[in-house]
């Protein structure tokens, strides 16, 4: 009887039913827009504040930036925002920051690049700690990333002889949108 | 008209009804309006950033895209020969693509890009994020716009061609705003960069992008909602899902490194010429597929018009020759040209109105349950009076007589 009674119930009023697809679409929009952020948050490693790079460098990722991996020789980390990345490598270095920049370009960047173009000028950089460094921009095609890449290398050498290279890079065209974040993280980096 | 009308199978019972975007009593309208207003704030802020990066490049980008977008808008709008969609709904679809989808996609793509980077690493992400995130995210959000348009004015989406028109409009709005971003952010924003971007994204590949993807998805949505009672739920779901999947796959292929024959740098004329060829390899198959579907949809519309008007032939409203002319767009254009030469522009305008009212007669006919519905009788009388007025014009009689032979 209860089943029959249930089947005799009138359908909900048309006005009420019209809300159902509209609400379903809102839920779909919310799911698509926020689902990636929620999932990436769940997948991300939890970091309480700054991340150590070796023994003498610390970098604090801004919101939206995550540790993507660590590497050795030289010791380093890779931060990513999804579209842009920041590689931070540290090594003992006795020369000037310009020398470190040149060594990184010749020994690492040029060695990996199928095509590479560097900016004409090397610019000065000052970190919040007062340390100064040098910066150069590049565009290139690298073996492991088929799309053209834009990047910016910043080299700093501390008075204690710690050299740090910040290699900020992104697929061509996307670096510009991430530069404010990248510069802020580099300038706030702490070197022992 | 004492004999009962011929029974014609007409799936389009709502043919010819016109509703505007502004359906205040529809929840879907309020969802649409709220999302567009909120995302407009974000979209304007984005445009401001882009404009500050390169004021000249930004202005040039919009100027070039208006030149590209306006003819395409008209081509899509005029695609439906017999029942043009209400302009407010068409513009509503365009605005959804340009404002809501671009803003929502920017936020969503960032999030899903992080997921790809987290799972695959930055190197994999640099190569595959655009292919793995944008197709699903953007096609879903654009399709939501088509569904909202349907929910706002259900009567208006009564065939696949209508779905294509609304979907393509959403895609066109999206493509224009995305192109402005690309011209400034990817191609540098200088006048040369913007022109290079226009060549790559519009001249070389303007036929293959979002207009096609969302047009396809729109056709699927329209098939699902307009074939109730004609096809099973399973079949309608399969077709709608299949066309949506085709749009996503087409978009995926375009964004992915697969079949990528674009030059990595443009150094000489050969590289410039390679760009349209590379674009064609990625986009041409989908374009052909969509063109075939649109052609089939138009043929179906023509069959409906013929079925609806068959019982009206030799009534005071319509002759057999006039029906033949109505069914053939080229013959219709020729008849007007001929009328203009014989009887002048006023007669041409009157003939154009007569033909439009005869198409409207088909729509009234599909809505009429009996042969003597007052609206139907009035429409027949209107057609007859228009023809009488036309025949009374000097020179027009000869033209009409020759058309009847």
Instruction: Outline the biggest β-sheet of chain A.
Output: 8 strands, antiparallel
- Report Rg of chain A: 25 Å
The outline of chain A comes out as: elongated
Largest interface: A-B, 46 and 46 residues
* Assembly annotation: heterodimer
Number of helices of chain B: 15
Uncertain runs of chain A: 1-6
Rounded mean pLDDT score of chain B: 88
- What is the CATH class name of the largest domain in chain A? Alpha Beta
The coarse overall form of chain B would be: globular
> What summary fits the major beta sheet of chain B?
none
N-to-C order of helices and strands of chain A: HHEEEEEHEEEEEHE
Could you estimate the helical fraction of the residues of chain A in percent? 25-40%
What does the average pLDDT of chain A come to?
85
What is the number of E strands of chain A? Answer: 11
Q: Kindly name the structural category of chain B.
A: mainly alpha
Strand content of chain B: under 5%
SSE sequence of chain B, one letter per element: HHHHHHHHHHHHHHH
Summarize the structure.
Chain A contains four helices and eleven strands.
Sum up the structure in keywords.
heterodimer; A: 192 residues; alpha+beta; Protein Transport Mog1p, Chain A; 2 domains; eight-stranded antiparallel sheet; 4 helices; 38% strand; disordered N terminus; B: 405 residues; mainly alpha; disordered C terminus
How would you characterize the overall build of this protein?
The complex is a heterodimer of chains A (192) and B (405). By secondary structure, chain A is of the alpha+beta class. Chain A folds into 2 domains: 2-43, no CATH class; 51-191, Protein Transport Mog1p, Chain A (3-Layer(aba) Sandwich). Chain A is built from 4 helices and 11 strands, in the order H-H-E-E-E-E-E-H-E-E-E-E-E-H-E. Chain B has 2 domains: 27-296, no CATH class; 311-404, no CATH class. Helix content of chain B is 76%, strand content 0%. Chain B has 15 helices and no strands. Chain B is globular. Residues 1-11 and 399-405 of chain B have low confidence and may be disordered. Chains A and B meet through helix 2, strand 3 and strand 9 of A and helix 1, helix 3, helix 4, helix 5 and helix 6 of B.
């Amino acid at each position: 009887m209860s089943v029959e009674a249930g089947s005799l119930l009138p359908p909900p009023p048309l006005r009420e039913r019209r809300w159902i697809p509209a609400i379903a679409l809102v839920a779909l929009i919310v799911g698509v827009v926020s689902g990636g952020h929620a999932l990436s948050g769940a997948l991300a490693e939890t970091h309480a504040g700054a991340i150590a790079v070796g023994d003498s460098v610390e970098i604090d990722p801004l919101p939206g930036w995550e540790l993507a991996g660590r590497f050795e020789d030289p010791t380093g980390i890779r931060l990513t925002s999804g579209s842009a990345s920041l590689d931070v490598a540290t090594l003992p270095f006795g020369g000037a920051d310009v020398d470190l920049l040149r060594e990184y370009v010749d020994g690492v960047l040029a060695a990996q690049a199928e095509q590479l173009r560097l900016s004409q000028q090397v610019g000065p950089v000052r970190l919040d700690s007062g340390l100064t460094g040098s910066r150069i921009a590049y565009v290139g095609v690298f073996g492991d990333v088929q799309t053209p890449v834009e990047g910016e290398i910043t080299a700093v050498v501390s008075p204690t002889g710690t050299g740090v290279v910040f290699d900020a890079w992104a697929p061509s065209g996307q670096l510009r949108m991430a530069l404010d974040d990248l510069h802020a993280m580099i300038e706030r980096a702490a070197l022992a | 008209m004492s004999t009962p009308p011929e029974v014609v199978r007409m799936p389009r019972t709502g043919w010819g009804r016109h509703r505007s975007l502004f359906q205040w009593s529809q929840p879907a309208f309020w969802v649409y309006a709220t999302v567009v207003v909120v995302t407009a704030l974000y979209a304007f802020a984005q445009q401001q950033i882009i404009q500050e990066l390169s004021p000249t490049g930004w202005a040039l980008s919009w100027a070039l895209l208006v030149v590209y977008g306006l003819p395409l808008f008209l081509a899509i709008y005029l695609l439906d020969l017999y029942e043009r969609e209400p302009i407010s709904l068409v513009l509503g679809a365009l605005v959804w693509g340009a404002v809501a989808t671009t803003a929502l996609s920017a936020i969503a793509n960032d999030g899903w890009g992080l997921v790809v980077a987290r799972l695959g690493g930055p190197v994999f992400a640099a190569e595959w994020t655009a292919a793995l995130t944008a197709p699903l995210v953007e096609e879903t959000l654009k399709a939501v716009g088509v569904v909202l348009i349907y929910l706002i004015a259900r009567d208006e989406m009564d065939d696949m061609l209508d779905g294509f028109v609304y979907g393509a409009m959403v895609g066109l709005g999206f493509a224009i705003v995305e192109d402005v971003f690309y011209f400034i952010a990817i191609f540098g924003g200088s006048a040369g960069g913007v022109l290079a971007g226009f060549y790559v994204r519009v001249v070389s590949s303007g036929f293959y992008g979002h207009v096609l993807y969302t047009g396809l998805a729109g056709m699927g949505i329209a098939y699902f909602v307009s074939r109730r009672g004609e096809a099973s739920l399973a079949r309608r779901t399969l077709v709608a899902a299949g066309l949506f999947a085709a749009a996503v796959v087409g978009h995926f292929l375009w964004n992915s490194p697969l079949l990528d024959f674009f030059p990595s740098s443009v150094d000489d004329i050969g590289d410039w010429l390679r760009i349209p060829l590379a674009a064609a390899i990625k986009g041409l198959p989908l374009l052909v597929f969509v063109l075939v579907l649109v052609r089939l949809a138009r043929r179906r519309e023509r069959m409906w018009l013929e079925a609806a008007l068959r019982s009206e032939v030799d009534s005071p409203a319509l002759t057999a020759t006039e029906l033949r002319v109505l069914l053939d767009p080229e013959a219709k254009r020729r008849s007007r040209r001929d009328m203009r030469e014989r009887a002048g522009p006023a007669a041409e305008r009157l003939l154009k109105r007569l033909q439009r009212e005869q198409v409207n007669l088909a729509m009234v006919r599909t809505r009429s349950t009996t042969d003597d519905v007052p609206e139907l009788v009035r429409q027949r009388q209107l057609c007859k009076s228009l023809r009488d007025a036309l025949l009374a014009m000097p020179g027009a009689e000869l033209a009409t007589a020759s058309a009847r032979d």
